[in-house]
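Internal tracking record. Fields below are filled automatically when a chain is submitted to the structure queue. Please do not edit lines marked as system-generated. If the sequence contains nonstandard residues, flag them in the REMARKS field before resubmitting.
Queue: standard
Priority: normal
Entity type: single polypeptide chain
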Amino acid sequence: MNHELTLENEKYAQPSAQAKDNCQRPARVFLYDTMETIGMRYGPTFRIMTELFAGPSASYGMITTLDSALHLLFPSISGEDQSLNEAVVPFSFDRIFVSAKISTVPRTRLHGYSTAQRTSYDTWKSSITISEDLSEPMIIMEAGQDARASCFTQTWHKDVDLLEPLQIKDLVYKRILKSQDDESVLDRLEFVCLVYIYRCLAWFESEEGKAHVPQDGFGKLCVEWVRNAVKEFPPLPSTESQVMSEMESSRASIVLSKSGDVTVQMVDRTGENLSRIFTREVEPLQVMTEGDLFYDFYRGAFGTSSNTNVAEYVGLVADKSPGVKILEIGAGTGGTTYHVLERLRNADGTSKAAKKIRFGLKGSLPKNEHMIGVIGSYSYVSGAGVTRLPKVEVADTIGCGYDWAASEIYFTLNGELLTYHSTITEAD
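SYSTEM-GENERATED OUTPUT FOLLOWS
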C-alpha cells in the first residue's frame, strides 16, 4: 500500500515540477484585469492568487485559499496569446481527491498547477493539482469539463444592507434619470397656481364660500398656510384682463416643457374645481383621476421625483432578494405603485416581487393591471370606512403614504411583529 502511494505521489510530483519550470510568463494581471472585461470580475478581496505564471496549455501559481484553485484554469485554457473574449466556467470533474493530511495551519503556502486540452470550439478538459511542497498532492481535480458560459450573464448589484443611509441616497440619485426639461418655466407655473389660489381665497370671503371654510383638521391647516404663503409673492395684476393675458402667456411657455405641460393641466383641472372640492360636491381624487391625466402626471410632472426614488430603493432591495414581499400603507392613488412595479419588472416580463399588498382609499389598480399580473400575489384593500385591517404576512419592505386608510394595521417585518396606529380621524 505504501509503495502504491509512493508511486501515486511520484506521478503528480514530476508534472508539478515541470509546470513550475515551463510556466514562466506572468499571468496574474491577465487573470484579474483581463477577465474583468468579459464579465468575470474579482474585487480586491477575492484577488487571492499571490503568484501566477502561464505556459503552453498550463499554469502554475501560489494559492491562498482552496477555492482559488479554480483560478488556475483560466491561464491554461487561454492559449499562447493569453486571450479570452468570453467567460469560461468549469461545470464538472470526473474525480476530486482531498488528502486527510492537508494543512490546517494558517498561511501555509500551497503550490498549484493546471493543464488544459481543448476538446471542441467551446469546451476544454482540464486538471488541477495542489500540493504543499511539490511532492505529495493534497488536492487532485481530474477530467474537469469547462465550457463557455453562454447560458447566462453576470450582473453585479449593490448590497443595500451594507450601505450607509447617505450612500443609499447618493446611489438612488445617480440612478434616477434627470429631467431634461427647462425648469425656468416653474416661475410661470407658479403664477398660474397663484391665480387659482387668490380666486379660492376670494371665494371664501363671499357669502357662498364663508360657510365652507374648513374649521378643523387638515383642511383648516391648509387654508391657514395658503393665506400666509401668498403674502410672500407680489400681487396679481390689477385687472382681470391683465391676469388672463398673463395666464395665457404663461401657459404658452409652460407647455413647451413636457413636465410643465402635464403639470399645468393638473393645476388647471384642480384650480377650476377648488370651490366644488370645498363644498364636497366632488372629491379631490375624483377630479384628479378623471381620464388618464393623473397617471401621466405621476410619471412626468414636476415635483414627482419621490415616486421614482422610492421605486429605485425598493429595486435595490429586490435586486439582492428576488421574490421580495411589499406592504404599501396609504397607497392612495397608486402614483408610486406604477413606478415600483415598473422598476421590479424583469426583462422577460416577470417581476422581482412575489407579493404586494396595498392599503389605501382609492387607487390606480386598473392602470397597473398589466404589470400586476406577473406578481405571484397582489392584494388591495380599499375603503374610507375601514378602521381595522387584518394581520398580513411577512413583508420585506414597507412604504407608508397618507395614513387615513386605517386606524390600526398589524404586519410583520422580517419576523418582528409591528403595529401601525393612526390617530387621524376620518373627518381629517
